[in-house]
Design brief:
two-stranded antiparallel sheet; five-stranded mixed sheet; alpha/beta
Length: about 110
């Protein structure tokens, strides 16, 4: 069985990879035997700000609340897009039997 571990940040991924034997450095992850370890970089994706849906929400007005979009949009900042795409590719891969969330739970 092969598994994917996603850590909170690169330093945690390196620590985990030492313990589980993922020593081979790849672009955006570490690999070894039956495991791959990658990481997040803070918030990789964030919900779009209210003004993304409508310019009038740039200034808050009590009358506009609650703001409930029909479809919630997730946005990825430009500086994190490359790593986001690496994680998306790993998560969509059929190579893994399961994924371990090793991110901060709090």
């Amino acid at each position: 069985m092969k598994y994917l571990v996603i850590a909170e940040k690169p330093s945690v991924a390196r620590s985990i990879s030492k313990v589980i034997g993922a020593y081979k450095h790849e672009d955006g992850y570490l690999e070894g035997g039956d495991c791959v370890v990658s990481w997040c970089l803070g918030h990789l994706a964030e919900y779009a700000a209210p003004e993304y849906y409508d310019e009038r929400y740039k200034s808050w007005r009590f009358d506009d609340l609650p703001i409930l979009p029909e479809e919630w949009k997730l946005l990825v900042s430009e500086d994190k897009k490359a790593h986001f795409n690496i994680l998306r590719k790993l998560l969509r891969s059929k190579d893994f039997d399961y994924v371990v969330n090793a991110c901060d739970a709090g």
